[in-house]
Amino acid sequence: MDYNPLRPFVEKLASRVELTPADTEALLKMRFSTREMRPGSYFIRERQRPTASSLLIAGVAMRSKLTSEGARQIVGLHLPGDSLDLQQLYLDEADHNIQALTTITLIEVARGDLQSVADKHPNVLKAITIDNVIEASIEREWLLNVGRRIGRARLAHFLCEFAVRLAIKSHVPDQTAIALPLTQEQIGDAVALTPVHVNRMLKELEAEGLITRTKNSIVIVEWKAMASAADFNPSYLHLNQKKQRVTA
Amino acid sequence: MDYNPLRPFVEKLASRVELTPADTEALLKMRFSTREMRPGSYFIRERQRPTASSLLIAGVAMRSKLTSEGARQIVGLHLPGDSLDLQQLYLDEADHNIQALTTITLIEVARGDLQSVADKHPNVLKAITIDNVIEASIEREWLLNVGRRIGRARLAHFLCEFAVRLAIKSHVPDQTAIALPLTQEQIGDAVALTPVHVNRMLKELEAEGLITRTKNSIVIVEWKAMASAADFNPSYLHLNQKKQRVTA
DNA sequence: CGTAGTCTTGAACTCACTCAACGATAGTGG
DNA sequence: CCACTATCGTTGAGTGAGTTCAAGACTACG
């Protein structure tokens, strides 16, 4: 078979659940489009009706919510290889925004198309479900992080998670250099701190020798000390989650 | 057909997705047990392997996570009619605790049994998925609440949500009297405030005439003012989510 | 009726915020 | 190529929302 740009999408799902040839075939037959989006542009806005599902191929995206006073909370980040809105595949109305942080490229399929594949192929639906549940687990850890850790640990935790998730995607097991495409204000929106305080905590972590910083990247120098300062335990990422075998 | 204690479970799922007679029959054939649990007892603990799924019939339960220093963050509450761990149906390892707050009764089915029904009945899986996604939406709102609202609004938001969810379950559209089975310390763990501050904010809301308090219950006297103080917009609860029709 | 848990209140403290100014950097247009 | 502008990062000083500590009051329950 020729190369099909939907392959990464299929592989993403196949990493969660073993897919049958029929499953794979149905997925690869979906109409799709490859799209590029500029930083800041919205994939979907709160209260809108979701119309598309997609897989992030390159770049970084974020989910966010706003208070009525305009304060923003980033509720999730997405790296290449992450699905962008399987969360909302069956919801009538989006409950949060999804927005490009950097320039991103994504493969997009129509919501209805993916729904009908999922209807006929339970393995696909199961893969989507598992993906959703793991994202929910990450959101819960963020809630714990924001609610119950002090600024320094909170920021450190954010950096540890980003480093680990990045390492997985790039198949480099011990990557500690993070290309961080977030401004300090955006980091603050993720960990619920002001940009000023983010700046101070970053400098503190640097002064303690846990990280070093250059223009747009951070290197975690002392991983153990950093993970300890962050109270970081990656089990919530469910990295060891076993692939579901086909039952029938 | 005789009355089957699994009925509420089926109805719960059927409220999300239209089920076929075959779906219903398969669900009703599952082995189940009815269980009662005392306040504080664990339904599941973090890092454990989930073995059962259940529906909460009576009482209130909570999900929580702990930092290594022992600080607790409650990441979700469950009222009668809520499912207790469909979240973890496909996860190898629990990422949070689920614990009874009051004495609770629940209908429990074996994880494997529900999985095999879901495998063969896509509508069931879809219903579970929708349930999971709505819970995730609530968790995101909590993250916004804890991260970006001040104590008074944060607490008010918590109370508004509890009142609305309670009202739905009891089919009383405008219920504002809340039987709150949480200590102020537990409320604090939900909204990430100290019990002392929870106490002060409750008294402040009372002094402003937004709520009145008696022993174990709170009445929201001025709903509009309260919702406004809370920055509460219930759209994240997805109450108007339409039931999914069978596609055939 | 005593004990344990919860609620309440006060006082001191502190982590993080606000406000404000300045510096660095990158992109833009003339 | 340089000046202009906007955005981002950095730093200081003052402030405040929420915490900590501590003690007393209330309530439920054996």
TrEMBL record, chains A, B:
Domain HTH crp-type: start-end pairs: 149-224
Keywords: DNA-binding, Transcription, Transcription regulation
CDD domains in the record: CAP_ED
Pfam family, one: cNMP_binding
SMART domains referenced in this protein's UniProt entry, alphabetically: HTH_CRP (SM00419)
PROSITE patterns xrefs: HTH_CRP_2
Protein name: Crp/Fnr family transcriptional regulator
Top-rank lineage group of the source organism: Bacteria
Record carries keyword Cell division: no
InterPro entries for the chain: cNMP-bd_dom (IPR000595), cNMP-bd_dom_sf (IPR018490), HTH_CRP (IPR012318), RmlC-like_jellyroll (IPR014710), WH-like_DNA-bd_sf (IPR036388), WH_DNA-bd_sf (IPR036390)
Keyword DNA-binding on entry: yes
